[in-house]
Amino acid sequence: MSEFTVIPAIDLKGGQCVRLKQGRADDATVYSGDPVAMARHWEAGGARWLHVVDLDGAFEGRPVHTDIIGHIADAISIPVEAGGGLRTDDDIVRLLDTGVQRVILGTRAWSDPGVVGRLVDRFEDAIAIGIDARDGRVQVRGWTETTDEYATELACRMDDAGVATIIYTDTARDGMLTGVNADAVRAMCETVSCGVIASGGVGSADDIRALRALNCPNLAGVIVGKALYEGRIDLHP
């Protein structure tokens, strides 16, 4: 991912493509009952990457939609990154074996940070870390638990462990279309040397322009969900 990339998101809940507001499981909007068709739609629209989250896996603490994610990876030619409920090495291997190019660890990276360096040694750039934060503090276990650790503190530890990519989400803005937290994204980019992908709050092309205007060389892209599904922006704003 050598240039700033707009990455469409597919969030899986009950086998459907949904979007949540601020990660609340009880506030879901269903956009498609066919995740594979949706993946093909985004590829046909010019997507260069696809971001997939197993929401049920994140809430349950174990992968739920590995098979569907595999069908998605098989159906398209662009690379897929995916996460949600990955708590063991076997979970990672199974997901990579489906054809996913990059797996996203969140809760495990926070709860067992010492394992991250070993995983990077084993899987190299296929390991990405999802850092989800509300008011600057890390949230875990499907955003149901807020920790005392600041997102930038966790990011420093992940960067030191050799992680190539951090996906930073402002959970208070996710699914709300209220605008990106550009200041927090800038702080994250200035904290680490690895690549950063922003997420949460994109509501219009102005938000994409605001991120580009940060001129952070390690800001690799932004994940967009609801704004794409509702036609507020396109993949090349």
**Number of helical segments?**
10
- How many structural domains in the coordinates? 1
The CATH architecture can be named as: Alpha-Beta Barrel
The first-level CATH class is given as Alpha Beta
Question: For this structure, what is the CATH homologous superfamily?
Answer: Aldolase class I
Shape: globular
Rg result: 16 Å
The whole-number mean of residue pLDDT values reads 93
Q: State the assembly state of the protein chains.
A: single chain
Amino- and carboxy-terminal Cα gap? 18 Å
Strand segment tally: 12
* Helicity level: 25-40%
**Biggest sheet, open or closed, and with what strands and sense?**
8 strands, parallel, barrel
Helix/strand-derived category reads: alpha/beta
General description of the model:
Helices cover 35% and strands 28% of the residues. It has 237 residues and is of the alpha/beta class. The protein has a single domain, classed as Aldolase class I (TIM Barrel, Alpha-Beta Barrel). It starts with a strand and ends in an 8-residue tail after the last helix. The model has no long low-confidence stretch (mean pLDDT 93).
Q: What attributes characterize this protein structure?
A:
alpha/beta; TIM Barrel; eight-stranded parallel beta barrel; 12 strands
Tell me the layout of helices and strands.
Elements: E1 5-13, E2 16-20, E3 28-32, H1 35-44, E4 50-54, H2 55-60, H3 66-75, E5 80-83, H4 89-97, E6 102-105, H5 107-111, H6 114-123, E7 127-134, E8 137-140, E9 145-150, H7 151-160, E10 165-170, H8 182-191, E11 195-199, H9 205-212, E12 219-224, H10 226-229
Parallel strand pairs: 1-4, 1-12, 4-5, 5-6, 6-7, 7-10, 10-11, 11-12
Antiparallel strand pairs: 1-2, 2-3, 7-8, 8-9
Helix pairs in contact: 1-3
